[in-house]
Amino acid sequence: MFEIKWLWQNLQGNRTRYILALCLSVIGSSLTIANPYLGQRIIDTFIAGDDARQNLIDQRGLLIALCLGMIGFSLLRTGLAYLTTMQYERSSQNTLYNVRIYLYNKIQGQDMEYYDHNRTGDLMTKMTGDLEMVRHSMAWIIKTIIESLTIFVAALIYFFSIDAVLTLWLLILAPPVFVVAFLFAKRVRPMYIDLRERLSQLNSTTQENIAANRVIKAFAREEFEIEKFTAKNANFSKANKTAALVWLDYFPYLETFAQAFNVILMIAGGYLVIKGRITFGEYAAFSSLIWAVSNPMRNIGIIINDIQRFFASLAKIVEIYYAKPGIVNEHRAVEKRRYDGNIRFDHVSFKYDGTTVLHDVSFSVQAGETIAIMGSTGSGKTTIVNLIPRFYDVSEGRVLIDGVDVRELELDELRGNIGIATQDVLLFSDTIDGNIAYGDPELPEEETVRYAELAAAHDFIRKMPDGYDTIVGERGVGLSGGQKQRIALARAMAVRRPILILDDTTSAVDLETETHIQQSLRSLDHDCTKIIIAQRVSTTAKADRILILDNGRIIEEGTHAELLAKRGYYYDVFMLQNEGLGRQVAVSG
Amino acid sequence: MARNKFDVDENLESPFDIKHFRRAMVYIKRQKKPMLIAFALSALSAAIGLSAPLIMQHVVDVTIPAKAYEPLVGWSALMLLTIVVSVVLATIRSRIMTKVGQDIISEIRIDLFKHLQQLPFKYYDDRPQGKILIRIVNYVNAVSDVLSNGIINFILEIVNLIFIAAFMFAVDVRLSFVTLAGLPVFLGVMLLIKTRQRRAWQAVSNKSSNLNAYTQESISGIGVTQMFSREQRNEGIFTRLAANYRFEWMKAMRFNALIPFSVDNLSTIVTALIYLVGLLALGPADITFGVILAMSSYAARFWQPILNLSNLYNSFINAVAYLERIFETLDEPVTIRDNPGAKALPPIQGQVTFDNVTFGYDSGLNILENLSFDVKPGESIALVGPTGAGKTTVVNLISRFYDVSGGSIRIDGHDISQVTLKSLRSQMGIMLQDSFIFSGTILDNIRYGKLDATEEEIIAAAKTVRADDFIREFEQGYLTEVNERGSKLSQGQRQLISFARTLLADPRILILDEATSSIDAKTERLLQEGLNELLKGRTSFIIAHRLSTVKNCDRIMYVSNKGIAEAGSHDELLARKGFYHRLYTAQKMEA
Which of these, A362, A430, B368, B481, is most buried using a 10 Å CB contact count? Predict the structure, then answer.
């Protein structure tokens, strides 16, 4: 079975321990059956037996020995049980640990397209509830199956050794139990798949609500959100109830059958005793161990229930466990080369979800050059820069760095040669220092400060209560847009890569600060090719070349002066942004 | 700033006391009736279940020795009947309790969520999102069984225990004390591990919270991580967090597994003692064999409920670690709330007055000091100035996202702290720096501004902000599915969509906080045209660095040095040759 194989495969490194736990389980469960034997002997010899009084006088030693034996046995059994539990826990925790890390890496390794289609809440469900089911399957489900089975088989063997006919009579009940259990399993499975889906929806709704808390307050939409959440919560709750009620449809049968073992024993056993086929003592032996047959039967329902839940969760985990990203980072680069930084787009087209975003784009950038890209909203500027570090792959054409197609480069090496600051600034809930040094955690503190200065961030950081040690919230929520952008900029510069991409990184920064940043960029102490996406002419003016993008095509290309002279898109934007000043230009020019 | 990080444990201020359960009782009490019925059913089912051993006893002692076939069948049938009845009762009980358990956690979860909706920005700013998420979903799930079946079983087991003890004492007092002698030992063991066990489970919940926070953050930050090829390092951090979790779990298990261990052994020791004391110390002269036999069986029965109780106790302790977190969140103070006696703000005319306003996010560190200004209805105000000077703070105060520490803010003469939050915010359109896109269709995203908006209204709003064109270019148009992080939309397009959302709300006061920073100059120009028409008669506050956006505003305020350094129209400020002039000329281009 796939699920077992999967577990076995992930048990690697803990297989011995787990098998040991299973063996201990078998021994421990057998002991449960053997243990009452001593008590029975005390009763037979010293209390109920015909020579009890005499024995009590003659064999005091035996009584004490038996009592001590009982205690010793119990200590042995419970000690063993303790050990067993810990072995199960240890090996299931180890497996959980391994699978968790494996999944984490899988998630980290997915390409952007995967993230465009998978919600955070759903991934979180996989990493929490679903993983918990994996642990549960190992620490509880399998354990319970083995222990129930051992007790059941041991009791049966014992029963058969006493009397086969009565044992067979008892076994009459086994087939109906299995049939009911099978029917239940079939019916409950889709319920758990559904339940699992609703849990994921609840997680997604909640997660989005937390992430959107500002927007919700801004629109005073708390009630709407509560409604939305209440619906998802009710859905989840309903699915929980439905699954539980299905279980309760079958529970009465399973429970009745399990308890009916006593009835069968009574009627068939009684009959056999009366017939003289078995003795009273033998009947008593059956009676004292009948629980060992009925309890496992009783457990079947619960086991099946949990197995189905585990299957539903595993099906979700497997989605990510075996997911193959279109763009694979094998982390193989042993020695990372430093590129020169020549970039060439060779007839690149890019389609996404059926829409063509870039049409036959060609341009090249020499090492050390600064290129500015400008264009209308949605014209494909960000897409162009996303193709360089291979966040997406081209649909047609090639992107080349130093003459090599990026798809042929080792991904770690490629990305290790690019520093990017994106539009949507994402910081981590870490110190400012930790955020700036995100790409190079070994960065000495003076360097952090230096890059913060270059990014015009030092002044405001210094003024914060804990300076560079101030913890910024996730997404940098404690900071203004411009401040976040500058930290992201410092982060991108701090890695000193030969290619630096700035995607509209200074849009929320005031002009004075921006001028400072422009200067810093020009005076960086490492050679680097710069690609700067910007909306402001003041940002693009000093670039070696400017590309104007419209609807996925390059419509203008040239220097500031050339493009102004062209009187096209760039000129229009320039005029728009310099109205008032435009007049001065006209007068002085 | 006590901001929490993914790898920082959250300390609990309150020590454990029964109060957490008492608070949980509030929810349980609402289910009193079904729970009482369930309890009665359980008791009945248990009582009927008790008759089975009696029947068996009778069959063995009387029926079989008498070789009576018919009574044997009769007793068997009766026994089957008791089984069926007790199972049916138990099933009904479970049906009731399933509903009760789900309803209890459903209510806790909704209360928790409602409370979270009221918590200020600061709450969300101060901790990783994953830590909030896990409380609402996972922690609440974890306490479901304890709060429903757990309680009933707890009571049942105690009743059971008392019954058995009573029977026991009725048979023989001396041997009963022998049985009870195990109890102090057991309680001693429990007492010894109680605090440690509780701490251990707290640590588990802390570590799982950390692990979740980091997982969530890794998922949201995946782009940055891949960009900087930080995967391996993050794996290291994650591995450490996962190892911490495993460590604490194992520690907690060590205590947990100790309980069945001690109960099992005590029960055996006590039974052995009964034999020894009964047979050797007291002897047959003093005590009959029947009594010893009965007592040894009672002793085993007496310890069974104790074992069950201690298993329940284990889950209680585990649940408490979660309940503490849940109630801690419910106790989080709502700092911005409707003041007592707050009235609904009448339809806003648009006059906004800042009267000596002082404000700081952290006490002692003022961002604004004694700020006063007055905005006439319909006026458009631009806020400019260096980043971090407090522009966003000014607009945040108008929407009462924070309360002023000194002075007051009035809208049409009403102090905003004296009106209801809903009436205030629902009349304002605020477009924040981060344009959040909900997962769903573009249509739904715009509709968020006005929930009952018709499709025509939505399209009209999209047209006004010039978003209609690009939306129609998608195959599915307005029904295109987008999500929080998805790259289907460019940053500029996201801004346009949230712009349309804001406009749709038809606000009386419009606040744009860097709302157009990612929109190209040409689109912005078009947008401005549509907007000018719309802005007529509405008060607006615009924060922008692009001066082309700012220029046309009625009044420009230059925010710096904890206040307003300059204010006036574009021409006035240029003539003054001050801060604004310098800012403006920085844009001067060499042609």
Answer: B368
Q: What is the DSSP letter of A468?
A: G
CA distance A135 to A15: 15
* Domain at A382, CATH number: 3.40.50.300
Q: Does B69 touch chain A (CB under 8 A)?
A: yes
Q: What's the pLDDT at B2? A: 54
Q: Do residues A563 and A373 touch, judged by C-beta distance below 8 A? A: no
- The per-residue pLDDT for range A17-68, each reduced to its tens digit, is 999 999 999 999 888 877 777 877 887 788 777 787 888 888 888 888 988 9
Report how far residue A219's alpha carbon sits from residue A11's, in angstroms, rounded to the nearest whole number: 50
Query: CB within 8 A of B556, min separation 6: which ones?
Result: B381, B382, B383, B384, B550, B566, B567, B568, B569, B570, B573, B580
Yes or no: say if B336 and B401 are a contact pair by the CB < 8 Å rule. yes
Instruction: Please report whether residue A271 resides in a domain.
Output: no
Residue B80, both tokens? 């089957």
**pLDDT bracket for residue B289 (50, 70, 90):** confident
**pLDDT beyond 90 at A339:** yes
Boundaries of domain holding A491: 425-496
- Measure in Å the smallest separation between the Cα of B372 and chain A Cα atoms: 23
Query: Which ranges in A322-379 belong to alpha helices (H)?
Result: none
pLDDT of residue B16: 58
- The number of residues in chain A equals 589
CATH number listed for the domain at residues B352-585: 3.40.50.300
Is A373:A421 a contact under the CB 8 Å cutoff? Answer: no
Q: Residue B18 to residues A430, B14, B348, B428: CA-CA distances in angstroms? A: 36, 12, 49, 45
- A530 and A567 belong to one structural domain: yes
Do A381 and A508 share a structural domain? Answer: yes
**Is B486 in contact with A115 (Cβ distance < 8 A)?**
yes
Residue A589's pLDDT is 31
**Closest approach of chain A CAs to the CA of B426, in angstroms?**
6
Which residues of chain B neighbour A510 with C-beta distances below 8 Å? 384-387, 545, 583
The ipTM estimated for the assembled molecules is: 0.89
Domain with CATH 3.40.50.300 in chain B: 352-585
Residue whose tokens read 């420009």: B556
Is A477–B121 a contact, with Cβ atoms under 8 angstroms apart?
Answer: yes
Q: Which residue in B230, B386, B473 is closest to A510 by CB distance?
A: B386
Q: Which two tokens stand for residue B104?
A: 């209890």
Q: Which band of pLDDT confidence, cut at 50, 70 and 90, is reported for residue A579?
A: low
Q: What DSSP character marks residue B98?
A: H
Residue A63 and residue B275: Cβ atoms within 8 Å? Answer: yes
CA-CA-CA-CA torsion for A220, A223, A228, A232, nearest 10 degrees? 130
What percentage of chain B has pLDDT greater than the value 70? 96
Which residues of A are less than 8 Å from B218 in CB distance? 104, 107-108
Element (H, E) at A350: strand A343-352
Residues A170 and A271: their CA atoms lie apart, in Å, by 13
A434 and A409 housed in the same domain: no
- Neighbouring CB atoms inside 10 A of B438's CB total 20
The band of A584, judged by pLDDT with boundaries at 50, 70 and 90, is: very low
Kindly state the tokens that stand for B129. Answer: 């999102």
pLDDT at residue number A147: 93
Contacting residues for B277 by C-beta, under 8 A, at least 6 apart:
B174, B175, B178
Asked if residue A394 is part of any domain, the answer here is: yes
Answer CATH for B19-331 from 3.40.50.1220, 1.20.1560.10, 3.10.20.740, 3.30.450.20: 1.20.1560.10
Tally Cβ neighbours within 10 Å of residue B206.
21
> What pLDDT score does A38 carry?
80
∠ CA A41-A44-A45, rounded to 5°? 85
Q: Which of A524, A465, A523 is nearest to A494 (CA)?
A: A524
Both structure tokens of B59: 């069959």
